[in-house]
Amino acid sequence: MDTKDLQTLELAAVLEQLASRAAFSASKALARSLMPSDDIEHVSSRLAETTEARLLLSVKIDLTIGGAHDIRSLAEAASRGSVLDASELLDVKSTLIAARTMGRHFEKEEDAYPELCRIALDLQPAPGLIDRISKALDEHGDVVDGASESLGAIRRDLRHAHDRLTSKLQHVISNPKIVPILQEPIITQRDGRFVIPLRAEFKGRLKCVVHDQSASGATLFVEPLQVVEFNNKVRELELAERDEIRRILAELSSLVGEQAESIRITVEALARMDLAFAKARYAETLRANEPILRHFEPPSGGKHPGSTLKLIQARHPFLDPEIVVPIDLILDPDTYILVITGPNTGGKTVTLKTAGLLVLMAECGLHIPAASGSELSLFDAIYADIGDEQSIEQSLSTFSAHISNIIRILAKAGNRSLVVLDELGAGTDPQEGAALAQALLQEFLDRRVTTIVATHFSALKIFAHGTTAVRNASVEFDIESLQPTYHLTIGLPGRSNALAIASRLGLDEKIVHGARSMVSPEELTADALLDEIHQERDLAREIRIEAEEERGKGKQLQVELRRRFDDIEAERQALLQQAREDALEELDVIREEMTLLRRRLEGAGQSLEELDSVADDFETLVEDLEESVSQPEPAHEAPHRPIQLGDRVYLRTLDAEGVVTDLGNAKAEVQIGRLRVRAGLNELSLHDEPGLEKKETNQRMEATRTTAVLTAVPPLELHLRGLNVDEALEVLEQRLDAAYLAGLPFIRVVHGKGTGKLRQAIRESLQDNRYVASFEPGSAREGGEGVTVIRLES
């Protein structure tokens, strides 16, 4: 790729935004150094890293590379014999700990995150080195006493010598004869020696060694002769401590140097992992999706280069996604040159930059700000001529600068290149410029170069209309508001709005009319037809949007009704199962009673013939009941059609629905929202299989029963015990409303027996309630007169 074109399309600015989301310097540098690639396997791997990182961060929101540093230079220096200081060794330790922590996240996760696990294999945390540094240094970088036996012994001796020294000095400054000649009775240090402040005029009164004096000369900092030996001992031990610390740091540095290569590999793996996380965070910020990569597939016998460019709801990454108008830039299988026309500031240049930049982003392994399902080929080079490139230094006009750039592009572009040209032929005589622009387009057409051009020339509209493999497109303009809409319409050229705009702005109608009379009737007629076509397309677009909204509402209602039916059916089955189990318990009681009765009759010498007949009938009843209890509900047979490309499927492991975008022998690639994941075929259910129905029935959507809003399904049982009559009736009325709207067949009201006043008030209120079909006391097992079962109108 030519750096000039990358600069024109502002790839560096995208990579800078990416780098800002990286956690440490190595990954930031890696982000800034990303270059586009046309190797589809390499780019697919890059995109898969981004997809897996987005999926991982959606599960582990707080996962980071925290604590990592780029310690490659430190390890290299240590390998050459340099001694690292304590803070640098702590950086080594924290980086290795970050690698160890990150590696543990991917243990046994190869199936879910294969690309990230491949990166994690290069993480070599060197646990022995971590432990050695941890034993020698504390969290502040201080060498601890236990770093070596010698250091521990030296520090013990140093503390003892220091105590003796300070004790001796304390005795000196407490002496009543010496106190008057001191500036103040304190112990301080000068040049590593412990001293006391002596007033200068009493210098000869105390035998001592002078080490320093104050700025005014009034105070001398002296070391009394009686503590010189003690000071010497402390100083000797301090120097021994320093040497031992240096030895320990040198030993640790040597260990780091021995593992310099392992550390380099680890840091680079951490940088690649962090880059994947940065790409994931950037994709979330842009609301981006993974594009589908397509090989170049030139048709046999045709001129088409075989490129694919299908950007759905595409947005420029630097524009606010909340307000930007997305575009659909789609080259059909018969088209590889697109001519975009329309008014100034209408979005032509942004469209060109969006197309070029999104392809570059995909080739760098980034998700692109476009809708799921966008497709593109990996071009070996992208060439751009956009903007005013006049050069005073080189004495080039705007036209000359454009032509010089186009000459450069013509020298390099091939049938696997993408070329984007802004204002082709502009900056010179319009007639000559249009002729030159048309000749250039013909050259790109003959070379089979995928090309997108923005222009104002009507001649290029005609050329695109009448030339195979070339198609018109336009950015729209609202005559009423005099503002561009930024919508890109493929298949129609832009309209001429100059006269209409002039009229709307208040130019004298006489002048406008005169100008219109100078335009050929054919062009006026063509503009009128274009205007009518645009109006019809706008109307069709509005109708389509309304139809899609209604379809979505209908699907929501269908899912909600199915969910409610399943909930009611599940409760019905639970009630039946409970009833069967209760019946079995009662039968066990009857069986025990029959056994006791048989023993009594045998003891009394009575006939057992009637009892045996009853026992046989009883056992037959028990067998039938046990069979009905254990018999499972008939399962819906799932269709056995194999999963195909484009099928809508339910992924059970993620509890999510998506579309199959790639298919292998045992695995499939599924697009789920903005993410693309790989899953085993045994984890997928087709849209009409029970797995997906279960997913849909678990969704909670708002819908309407007729025109009213459906509420959440209320419980079948309502407890009113402890409420007074007024409170209970109000709660009951609300529950009846909710149950009726939810389509429940009945509810049970638990009011208790008590004095019977609450029960009587409830049943009286039910007699005139429009939702109530009938009501009755509960069964003995349900609570008898303490419960009222209410059947609702259907």
- Give the biggest sheet: 6 strands, mixed
Radius of gyration, in Å, reads: 43 Å
Q: How many helical stretches? A: 22
Number of strands: 23
What's the shape? flat
Mean pLDDT across the residues is: 83
| Helix content, binned percent | 40-55%
Which parts are unreliable, with pLDDT below 50 for 5 consecutive residues or more?
390-396, 629-639, 689-711
First-residue to last-residue Cα separation: 71 Å
How do the strands of the widest beta sheet line up side by side? 10-11-12-8-13-14
Q: What is the SS-derived class?
A: alpha/beta
User: Strand share of the residues?
Assistant: 15-25%
What's the gist of this structure?
The protein is built from 22 helices and 23 strands.
Q: Care to describe what's here?
A:
This protein has 794 residues and is α/β, with parallel strands linked by helices. It is built from 22 helices and 23 strands. The protein has a 6-stranded mixed beta sheet, with helices on both faces. Strand 15 (648-651) and strand 16 form a beta hairpin. The longest helix has 84 residues, at 521-604. The protein is flat and about 120 Å long. The relative contact order is 0.07. Residues 390-396, 629-639 and 689-711 have low confidence and may be disordered.
